[in-house]
Structures are given as C-alpha cells and as structure tokens.
Design a protein that fits this description.
Blueprint (H helix, E strand, L loop, with lengths): L3 E5 L4 H11 L6 E6 L10 E5 L16 E4 L5 H4 L2 H21 L4 E5 L11 H13 L6 E6 L3 E2 L7 H13 L11 E2 H14 L4 E5 L6
C-alpha cells in the first residue's frame, strides 16, 4: 500500500516509537519527519527534513501525505515559560495542521493529554484543550485525538515529576476505581496511533486513558 505519513515530534517519547512502527509497517511506503536536528537513523522509507519551527509556515510543501501524526510537546521547565511552552504545544501544532489541510491531508492524529480542557485553570491542560477545539474545526476527513495518562519510557531529558509518578502511579492505580488512570508507555500510544491510522473510518475518534491500551 502506497501511503505517506508525516510526523511532528519524531524525537520525543511517542514520536520515536511511532517512527519505528511506521517504518516497519507494510501500510506505509514513505515516512516524512520534520525535526530541528537530524535523526540518528536512516531508512529507505524515511525522509527527514530539518526545519526552523519559528518559520514553520514557510515549509508548507513538506506537509504532504495521507496522515499527519502530531506528537509534539514540552514542559514549562524545559521551555522556560508558559508562553514558550504554548508555542510548542499549541502554536506549532496548529500551524502544521492548517498547512496539512491546505495540502489535502486526510487524517490528523494528535497526542493530547488526559484532562485537556479549554476551560481548565491549568495553563497546560487549557492549551491542550484549546488545540483540540481548533483542530476539530479544520477540514480533515478524519481526526483522532488521544488523551493518555502519564507516559512511561526513556526520554532524552530527565523529568523528576514523571519519574516520581512512574513509581507511585502503578501502585495506586491497582485500586479498581483508579485502574484506568494507570501509566501507559510511549510504545503503546504509538501502536494505537498506527492502528487507528489504518482502521479509522469515522470523522472523529477520541481515545482516553485506558482506551489506548492495545
């Protein structure tokens, strides 16, 4: 099957796992990644474009394919401020989505967050919720929004809060009424993204917390 996938955030936890799965999938013949720095891998199906995200609108011709997977995300600590975090978690992703629509990309697949809500008092959950609302207004034939709980896996940057959560949450979520909040690995989220990119027929699908487990 000759299909092209475009990935934003291919250097992150979910993006790295998704890239490997797409390269090994017979359902995709070409994988395009847009990153700030070169990826440490090469593959006959892979095209890696190095771009300046501050000038993202200038790269419209690169957003051509069948599915756009948006796995971008950062923390306030790494970004330096809430406004800098919003630039990554909202601005870049929304600009990329609009560029994809202009190129008739049919399917948009977004890694959001559990608790995403445009009315939230949390700046992080608010920006995630606002992005979801804006994406749903765009003219994609199919949209998938995934809202995972705490993501587990090896990251490039150490995150203390996530490290603590990765120890505590698996214990407390053994309780029946908390079970659906148990942490999920980046590989599991990536697998769900690959599956829905192949199987989804409806216009909008949400997968929340334990619904992402394969």
């Amino acid at each position: 099957m000759s299909r092209t996938a475009v990935i934003l955030g291919a250097t992150g936890l979910v993006g790295r796992a998704l890239l490997k799965k797409l390269l090994n999938s017979s359902h995709f013949s070409h994988v395009v990644t847009l990153t700030r720095r070169p990826l440490p891998i090469s593959h006959s199906k892979l095209t890696n474009h190095i771009i300046d995200f501050e000038k993202l609108s200038q790269y419209g011709e690169l957003f051509k394919g069948d599915v756009l997977f948006s796995c971008l995300g950062t923390t306030q600590k790494l970004a330096g401020s809430v406004s800098a975090q919003r630039k990554v978690d909202f601005d870049y992703q929304f600009i990329a989505a609009k560029l994809a629509v202009c190129n008739a990309v049919q399917h948009y697949c977004l890694v959001s967050s559990s608790g995403a809500n445009a009315q939230s008092r949390s700046p992080y959950l608010k920006m995630k919720g606002e992005l979801e609302l804006q994406i749903k207004l765009l003219a994609f034939a199919r949209i998938t929004i995934l809202q995972p709980s705490l993501l587990l896996g090896e990251r490039e940057q150490f995150r203390m809060a996530e490290k603590i959560g990765s120890v505590i949450l698996p214990i407390i979520t053994r309780l029946p009424f908390l079970r659906r909040y148990k942490p999920i690995t980046g590989k599991q989220v990536a697998q769900k993204m690959l599956t829905v990119s192949i199987e989804q027929q409806v216009k909008l699908s949400y997968f929340v917390l334990d619904e992402l487990f394969e």
